[in-house]
C-alpha cells in the first residue's frame, strides 16, 4: 500500500489557541512571536514529562517540534516526511524512520496531553494547554480552514452531565465545530451569485 494511503494529507490549516474559560476563541494576533511560542511549548512539554516521570525521548521531542513548526495541523504522513528529511541532513547515513515510529510518538504525546488529533481533519496539532488528556474544543473555519483551540470548563461539564445520564464513559472529550471565523464571516453574510446546495460559500439555501 502506498505510504500516502496510510497517511492522508489534510488541507493546510492554522490553529491559534486560547484558554478562554468559555469566551470567544482567540485567533493569532498580528505580530505573533511564533519562535517564542514554539520554545515555550517545548519547555512546557519537558516540564510536564518531568512532573509525571515520563520520558520525552529524542524522537518524541522531534515529532512535537514538528507539530509546533507553525500553527497548522499536520498529517502523520507529513510528520514522517519532515522527520526523515531532517534526519537525512543531521545523519546522512541513518535509516529512515518507519510509520510506526511516528504513530508511537504521537500516541505518547496525546496520552500526556501534549498534542491533539483532529479526527475530522485526520491531522495533529500541539496542545496549547499541556497536561494529562484533557477536553478541548476546536472551532474549524470551513472557508479559510483556520482552527482555534478553546478549553471551556462549562462545555466540559455539560458533556460530563450528558454522559452521566446515558451511563456513558467519556474517554476523548474533544469537540470539533465547523463554521466561519470572524475574518471570513463578512464575505459569507449573503449567498453568492449562482448559489446552490453544492456551493462552498457556507450559506444554506433560502
From TrEMBL:
Keyword Phosphoprotein: yes or no?
no
One GO BP annotation of this record: negative regulation of DNA-templated transcription
Keyword Zinc-finger present in the record's keywords: the answer is no
**Necessary cofactors:** Zn(2+)
Q: Which InterPro entries match?
A: FUR, Fur_C, WH-like_DNA-bd_sf, WH_DNA-bd_sf
Q: Family membership, please give it.
A: Belongs to the Fur family.
Q: Under which name does UniProt file this protein?
A: Fur family transcriptional regulator, zinc uptake regulator
Organism of provenance = Insolitispirillum peregrinum
Amino acid at each position: 500500500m502506498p505510504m500516502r494511503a496510510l497517511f492522508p494529507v489534510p488541507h493546510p490549516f492554522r490553529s491559534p489557541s486560547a484558554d478562554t474559560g468559555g469566551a470567544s476563541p482567540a485567533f493569532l494576533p498580528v505580530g505573533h512571536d511564533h519562535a517564542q511560542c514554539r520554545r515555550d511549548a517545548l519547555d512546557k512539554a519537558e516540564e510536564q514529562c518531568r512532573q509525571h516521570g515520563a520520558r520525552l525521548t529524542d524522537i518524541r521531542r522531534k515529532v512535537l517540534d514538528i507539530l509546533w513548526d507553525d500553527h497548522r495541523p499536520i498529517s502523520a504522513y507529513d510528520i514522517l516526511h519532515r522527520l526523515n528529511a531532517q534526519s537525512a541532513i543531521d545523519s546522512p547515513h541513518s535509516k529512515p524512520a518507519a510509520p510506526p515510529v511516528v504513530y508511537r510518538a504521537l500516541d505518547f504525546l496525546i496520552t500526556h496531553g501534549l498534542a491533539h488529533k483532529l479526527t475530522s481533519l485526520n491531522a495533529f496539532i500541539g496542545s496549547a494547554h499541556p497536561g494529562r488528556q484533557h477536553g478541548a474544543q476546536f472551532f474549524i473555519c470551513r472557508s479559510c480552514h483556520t482552527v482555534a483551540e478553546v478549553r471551556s470548563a462549562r462545555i466540559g461539564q455539560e458533556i460530563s452531565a450528558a454522559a452521566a445520564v446515558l451511563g456513558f464513559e467519556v474517554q476523548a472529550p474533544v469537540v470539533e465545530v465547523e463554521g466561519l471565523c470572524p475574518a471570513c464571516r463578512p464575505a459569507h453574510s449573503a449567498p453568492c451569485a449562482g448559489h446552490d446546495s453544492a456551493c462552498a460559500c457556507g450559506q444554506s439555501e433560502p
